Each structure stands twice: as C-alpha cells, then as structure tokens.
Amino acid sequence: CGIRNMALGKLLLVIFVVILASSAECKPNIVLIFADDLGFGDLSCYGHPTSTTPIIDKLASEGLVFTQFYTASPVCSPSRAALLTGRYQTRSGIYPGVFDADSIGGLPLNETTIAELLKEDGYSTAIVGKWHLGVGEGGMYLPTHQGFDSYFGIPYSHDMCPCYTCFYPNISCYDKCRVAEVGCPIFENEKIVKQPADFLTLADNYTSAARSFILTEAAKENPFFLYYASQHTHHPQFAGQQFTGSSIRGKFGDALNELDWSVGQILKALEDSKAIDNTFVFFTSDNGPSLTRKERGGSPGLLRCGKGTTWEGGQRVPAIAWWPGKIAPGKTPELGATVDILPTLATLLGIKLPPVALDGFDMAPILFENKTSNRNYYIYYPDNVSPSEGIYAVRLNQYKAHYYSHGGLCPKDYPDTVCRSNFSKHAYSPPSLYDLLNDPSEVYPLDASEYTTVIAQIDAKKKQFEENMKWGLSQMDRGHSPSVEPCAVPHCTPFPTCCATKEDQICL
Fold it and tell me: Which of 45, 76, 163, 499 does the annotation list as catalytic?
C-alpha cells in the first residue's frame, strides 16, 4: 500500500511539473501570408522554370509543402472570408463575386475571425495589405471592427482604382483599370493616410508596417498574429526601383520577386526580434492565376484552367507550413484547405472553437505528426455561387465529380475551351469524374458506368453537405453606393478625382 502511494505521489509530481512547464511556455506567434492570384505553378519550388523565389524556396525546403491544398473560392473576397472564419463563404453571405469599392455590404460583424479568437486569447493582432471584405458606411466593415488591433493597407484589389504607373521610374500599367473610381486608398486603421496609393512604394510600405508590428510586439513579449495579405501578384503587376527589370520572367516575375523579398523581410524581423523559433508561419494564395492576362497573369502549372473556375487550377494553390523544430521539412499529398487554418490554430493554442458550423478540419496530424489528414473530401463552389445552383464539384478521396462548370478569367482564344470566359455554364449528367491522384490535370474523364459506386458515394456526400448548409444573406446583393467609396476628403467635389490626401492633390 505504501509503495503504491509513493508511486502515485511521484506520478502526480511528474504531472504537476509537466503542467507547470506547459503553462510557462510562451504562446507561439502566428504569421499568415496570403498571396494574391498566385497560381499553383508560379513558384520556383512548385516547378516554374524561370521564377526566382529564393526566400519562399527556402521556406519550402525547411517547411512542409502541400501538393493538394485548396482555397474556398476561385475569386478574392469569398476566399478571404473563408480563410478568416473557417466557414464557406455561403454561410457568411460573401457571394456572388467580390466586393467593389462602392459595395454597401461586408463581412458580417457577427462572424468570428481568426483575429477575434486570438485576440481573446491575449494576442496582439494586425493585418497588413489587402482586406477585400468590405468597407461599408463609415468604415464599419474594416478590419479594426473584425478583431484586428491595427490595419495598414488597401481595402480591396488595386485594379478597382485608376492605374497609371506600375514600374519604376514611370512605366505605365498595362491598362488604366477603373478610371471612374476613387484612387486606391491606403488606410491606417480607420483613417486614409494616402490616396491615391503609390504602387512603386507600396510593397516597401507594407513590409515596413509588417516588420514594425513584429519588432514592437516581440519587444513587449506579447504573442502576436500577423496577417500579411500582399497585393502581389494580382493585375496590374507592379514593382519599385529595386525589382523593376529584375526577372527574366518579365513584369510578372518582377512583382513575384518583390513578394519574395517581402517574405524575406518578415522572416528577418522574426529573426532580429528573436521570435523566429516560436513562430508558426503559413504561406498560401487566395485563388488560382488570372489567365485572362495571358503570360503576365500567372501559371496553374499542370492544373486545368485558373481563376474564376472550379477546375483544379482555380482552387488548388501553393501552401507551405513552416516552424523549424516543430514541423518536419518535407512534402505532403494530404488534403488541406484554407478553412482548416482556424480550427488548426484553435487546437494548437487550446482555444475553444466558436459556436457556429465550421467547415474546417484540424491539420495538426499532418503538420506535427506526419499522419493522414482529417479531411477526405472537398466542396467546390463557383465564383458566382447562388442557393439555386449550389455546389459545382465535389472531391471525395482521390475522385472529383463535376456537376457543373463554366469558364473563368481566361482569354477567348485559350486552347482549352472549358476555361474560356465565353464558355457558358454546362451541366454534367452523370457528373464528369476524374482521378486526381493519377490525373491532376483533369484531362481524362473516367467512364461513369464503371464507377457507379464512387459516384453514388460522392452524390451522398454532396446531398449531406447541402442539407447542412445554412445560407447567409448575400452581402453583394445589398448593392452599391458612391457614398461608401473611401475618400480622403469626404463630400468633396468634383467626385471622385477630389478624393486625395493633401500631398497628393493636383492643382487644377
């Protein structure tokens, strides 16, 4: 009896020491890097022969590279909503399409973002870069109302403004973008600090803001969450003096080099602040490449089609998880998705999940244990999704069934007709079935008559998912109003050209 009590006492002591050590351990910092319109085949580490991305390549060589990682939508706003909430955009109402500069709606304030979860757990939170989840009346949908302590960036795509100079010293953009809109505003929290944005210094300014946040919070010994949402490599591509003409891949390569440099500067800030060993970094992209821009629009690699479609090129994206000493270097074919990031962080930090329907799965087994994914299926919604149409495709294990497809942001003379912008919605009955492990390019449809069991299983998964989907009210359907366009000089005339910060106003 005494021996048993002694053994029990020793066991309790060990448990107490483990708990004490665990509680004393610093919470890991989180850095989430989200590229814009970066295709599966654009990075050197994903096989592009003329891209030069040494920093991201190093991230890949030291981290875990995903080869089957998905974003929730083939276009910007819904993919960002899903990333931050762990829920498909259909639940939050971020459909159809994307927010414009004058959109009335935005990400509903009752949605719980990663930033809100982490802030409640004692984290300092910041976003630098592209928001694209609405501005709204009086800036009500800006990131500072969605869990972020600070914000520095343009609140939507930079082609939703007039575009004039994109490369040093005064090389014009490929087109002038939207000349009838206000100039691209750069917000600092809820105040416009520059309008129009200067594309030649934009990446420098973003990088400085990201570094400043890291260095400041690390000095305070605060755990921090940085969401770095780059405007690169979205149209129109741009670059400052250091990177103009730096790539043999042309202007797209110049922009990509500037993105790579930005990533390097963020990592250097982590190193300089001695936070690098306790920081989880995740790099990925919001959707596939914009093929409508042809050779300057990005590359899907071996995947079919690109942005705006539910073919693999539209939603399978590069993804790298990096945390030396915690995540073993390598490459994984396991399924992962942007909606999985929120529940993964919750597990990592021991945070209670929000009391709503989530679509993400915990990726910890893949990241830290070299085990199989908790996810064996994926749902593909189109860019113009609506409750009447619903799901376009479903992946279950290695098989993907297309129920519908339509063309995307792609030239009308593109070799593959189903990718073209003028390829109208097409229904497949029975669904068009592909084996993605053996045919990731979706070139060879399987004979449906030989895969009736597989199709029945996918049909059942689709039905089950649709039955459990509660659609949020469309925020895009709330319409547009010039009154919500961000203007540095509210109510000025002549609108919109009068909307400029003092140093940027043009004397007439």
Answer: 76
The most distant pair of C-alpha atoms in the chain lies apart, rounded to whole Å, by 95
Q: What is the dihedral of CA 41, 321, 158, 195, to 10 degrees?
A: -150
Best CA proximity match to 144, nearest among 161, 127, 122, 168? 127
Strand order in the sheet with 64-66: 191-194, 186-188, 150-153, 124-129, 224-229, 29-35, 279-285, 319-322, 64-66, 330-332
- Contact in structure between 259 and 233 (CB atoms under 8 Å): yes
By CB atoms closer than 10 A (0-12, 13-18, 19+), residue 388 is: exposed
76 is catalytic: yes
Instruction: Give the span between the Cα atoms of 482 and 180, in whole angstroms.
Output: 11
Nearest-angstrom CA–CA distance, 203 and 261: 9
Nearest to 266 by CA among 50, 453, 33: 33
Q: What is the DSSP string of 169-188?
A: TTEEPSS-B-TTSPPPPEEE
Contact 40, 442 (CB under 8 A): no
CB crowding 241-266: b at 16 or more within 10 Å, else e:
eebbebbebebbbbbbbbbbbbbbbb
Residue 132 bears catalytic tag: yes
Catalytic residue among 132, 235, 402, 406: 132
Measuring CA to CA, how many Å separate 370 from each of 32, 335, 340, 342? Answer: 21, 13, 17, 20
Write out the chain's pLDDT in tens, 508 residues: 544 444 544 454 344 334 433 443 589 999 999 999 999 999 999 999 999 999 999 999 999 999 999 999 999 999 999 999 999 999 999 999 999 999 999 999 999 999 999 999 999 999 999 999 999 999 999 999 999 999 999 999 999 999 999 999 999 999 899 999 999 999 999 999 999 999 999 999 999 999 999 999 999 999 999 999 999 999 999 999 999 999 999 999 999 999 999 999 999 999 999 999 999 999 999 999 999 999 889 999 999 999 999 999 999 999 999 999 999 999 999 999 999 999 999 999 999 999 999 999 999 999 999 999 999 999 999 999 999 889 999 999 999 999 999 999 888 999 999 999 999 999 999 999 999 999 999 999 999 999 999 999 999 999 999 999 999 999 999 999 999 999 999 999 999 999 999 887 653 3
Helices (H) and strands (E) in the chain, counts: 11, 18
Question: Cα-flanking dihedrals φ and ψ of residue 380, to 5°?
Answer: -110, 115
> SS3 sequence, 370-419?
CCCCCCCEEEECCCCCCCCCCCCEEEECCEEEEEEECCCCCCCCCCCHHH
Rg (CA), the chain: 23
Question: How crowded is the C-beta side of 407, counted as CA atoms within 13 Å?
Answer: 18
Whether the bond between 78 and the residue before it is cis, its omega within 30 degrees of 0, is no
